[in-house]
Every structure is written in structure tokens, then in C-alpha cells.
Design goal:
Length: 521
Amino acid sequence: MKSSALIMLAALACCVAAAPAQNRTQSHLFQQAIDWVETKGDYPAAIRLFEEVARGPDRHLAASALLQAGLGYEKLGKDDAQAAYRRVIREFPEQHEAVGQARARLSKLVPTGPSNLRSALTTRQVWAGPEVDVTGSVSRDGRYLSFTDWEAGGVALRDLATGQKRLLTRNEHNSYAENSRLSPGGEQIVYVGLNQDGGYELRVVRTDGSPPRLLYRNEETPYLWPADWSPDGKQIVAGLGRKDRTIQIALITVADGSARVLKTLADWSSPGRITLSPDGRYVAYDGRQQEKSSERDIFALATDGSREVPLIEHPSDDMFPVWGPDSRHLLFISDRRGPLSIWMSRVVDGKPQGDPELIKPETGSARPLGLTRQGSYYYSVRTSTNDVYLAELDSAAGKILRPATPVSERQIGSKGSPDWSADGRFLAHRGPGPLSISILSLETGQSRSLSPPLQFLNRPRWSPDGRSLLVIGSDRSSRVGLYKIDTTTGEAAPILYSDLEWECRAWRPGPPMESRSSTAM
């Protein structure tokens, strides 16, 4: 999607005010045009004067005049209004207030309801298949996608026009790579790797094929990940998961690997995404609304450490922020209207302006891969499904007596990890959905559901006495480990917490065990 379309869909406040003039001739003409509107209602004559003012040297007055001309065209019912507002945006980008007002008027003239959005936006699939990896990023020019080649265990580049792959690193001595981020110029990639000692570290590799180099490693940081590059390519914003159960948002200098901590989050409250504004002034990240809440809001943190403000506050789950190319818009994913959708909010000086606007409805489990300078938003969607089927067979004769059928018709494709009870009377499985467990009685054919108080669970396994299930899970304080689920009440009790909690993060993508696809909007 072109950046102009992004701008047209922004929800902005609308007001027009002329600032004090610096040029008398322009000021006189501007005031004369205002008088003709207010006293005579002569919009055609006023528009001619506004157009003349717009050609003068005072850029503030020129932008204001074009705004007034647009309002005049609106009164006359002419489509020229949209052209006037687009001129303000295109020709006077430094006049922030005027540009914001022009966008607001365009948002009124160009409807932004879901039906219009579907016709205004173009969406195309750029990669699909079981080999797709979604842990990388798109280049700022939209030509390449960095990703992990899980077969080789290294970082690779995919040419999005030709589909050709270029492998940059390989897995040597269990030193695999993931979570790659392309630099603004596309000449370097930062990624996280596992070294021979089992520790995680940040590395940088050049796209010309030069050997990678170590950027950052700290024994107090069992897991870390690169999030974004600074506009000049001299720093990287990263998340550092420390042994003391805190998360640090830090800026790491590319030249020497030194780190400056911007924010410390308690109890391993890991952001789903950290992103640096193109002007380098703010870091946006999503964090939990409350200590044990799974819903997230989005916050802006000044890179100079001066302040932090909430950007997106809503009872829904708002996550995965991505800055627009102008640093004045923020795209994010939210379930505020039910299905996950892409939204956009206007941001001025690190503060939200107006209500967020729906950009792309019902995207499914989308995860952003980045935004190009031209305004194309790349995201990934997981498309594979899992389900549990039952079949009856004669093992002695090797014959199928009854073909396989789903254990439940509810939410087909959202179940998995089946396990029989020791006495063979019950079948437990994950789903429907990611946070529930179902138990099917073979005697009655009835199924009941458990909803443990966890924010992630997988692989339920029966205890020998049939009174509980053992699951890999994460509680609402993000503590990952083994949990015992009472099969009567659904209560969850921790048995063992893992020292490698980062390996089990619910939102952290891994090797391509399921089919995925990447989409650009």
C-alpha cells in the first residue's frame, strides 16, 4: 500500500487556522481571501487568491492557503478539494499542523469503512509453503526478506521479485540463527545465534557474504533478540531477557557492542514487538495492561530517556506496533472488534492523536515483518491446521473397520496433541483453540472442556491414575514450565519451572513445522 493511501486512511483532528504571517503581501492576500469568504461568500474569488498565496515564499502561509482553498472547493462540491489537500501533504511535509489538517479532510472525503478499505487496498501473497520462515524482516526498499533457512540453520535473503534465495550463514557447531533484522540500507543483518556453549548472542553479517561478527553477549542474559535498527544504522534496539527475570529494552551500538538500557520490565514481561521510529526519537513496544493480564497496550519510550507515554490504551489486546515511514503514524494489530485486524493511529511528538482507524479487517493471526519506505506493510499469516481424528481398526487383520473422523465438529483445524488415558477410556487433546483441553469419553461419546488459567499450553499427557494431566505451559506471569492440570476442576499447579523459558514463548515463532505464508499489503 502506498504511503499516500496510508495517509488518506488516517483518523485525524480537523481544524484550520492561519498562523501569523511573515510576508506582508501574502498576509494581505490571505486576509483578503478570508474576508471574501466570510462577508461575501464568494468562494471562487477567494480560491483564486488562496492559490496565489500558495505560490508565495512563506511556506506556512502557502500551506494554510491551500487548506482554505480545499475548504472552498468542498463548499462548491468540487473534487478539486482532494487535489488541494494532497498538495499540502506532498509539497509542504515540514508544515506538520497543516499536513495533519489536510489528512483529516481527506479522511472525511475518502470513506474508510471496511467495504471501502477492501476496494482501496491491494493485498498480494509474496511467499507461501512449508519452507516459509516468519522470524525475519523486509528491507526498507521492499526488495528482500531476511529469514532463517532452517534446513541450513543460517540467515538467508529472499529476493521477493524473483523468489531466489541467497544463504549468508550456516549452522556450524549448533550455532543456528533466527530473528534477523535488515539494516536501513540493506547492507547488514543483525540476528540472534546460539553459540557452542549454549548461550545466545547477537551477531551481524554483511549481505556481501563477509563472515559474521559477534556484536553482543552477556552471561547474565540467557536470551536476547534484535528488534530494530536506528535510522543511521549505528544502533540496534534489542530485548534482553536476564537471569533476574527482568526484560531490558536497550540500544546497542553497532561499532563496539556497548549497551544503553532504556527500560526494565519486571518478571519477564516480554514485549511482542519493539520498534524504533524512523526519526530515531521513540521506541514503541507492547506490554501487559496489568501484572497478570494477557491483554496488552502499546507504549512510546523516548530514546533520550526523558519520558514514556501510553500510545494505545484499550481493554482489548493491542500488539505488534510498527511505525509508519513519517514517524507520525503507528500501525498495530488488535482484536478490539473481535477478529484480529490491522489498525493505525496518528502520533505527534510521541503522543496519540485521535482515535485509531481500521486499516485491514480480519487478517487472522498476522505478525508484522516491517513497513517499507513507500508504505507497503508486510506481514505473515500461519495457514496450517491441526486436528484429532479417531478410526477403528482390526490390528490382527490389518483392516480399517471405521474410517477416521474428527473427534469434534467444533472449530475444525484447532486441535492437537492427543493422549489416551492409562485405562483407554478417555482421550485428552489440546483445543478447540489454543488455551483449552478437551477430554472425550469413549463410553458416552461426550466431550468436556477444561480452561486452565494459563496463557499458553501444549502437549497434555495423562497421569497414571487419570486424575490429572501434565502440560507444557506458561502462567499469566509468563513463567514457563510443567504444570499439573486437575481433570475435575481445571486448576493448574506448577511442578517445575524451566530455565529456558524463552524456548517456549507462545508468541515466539520457531522452525517451520507447519505451513505458513507471508503477505504484503
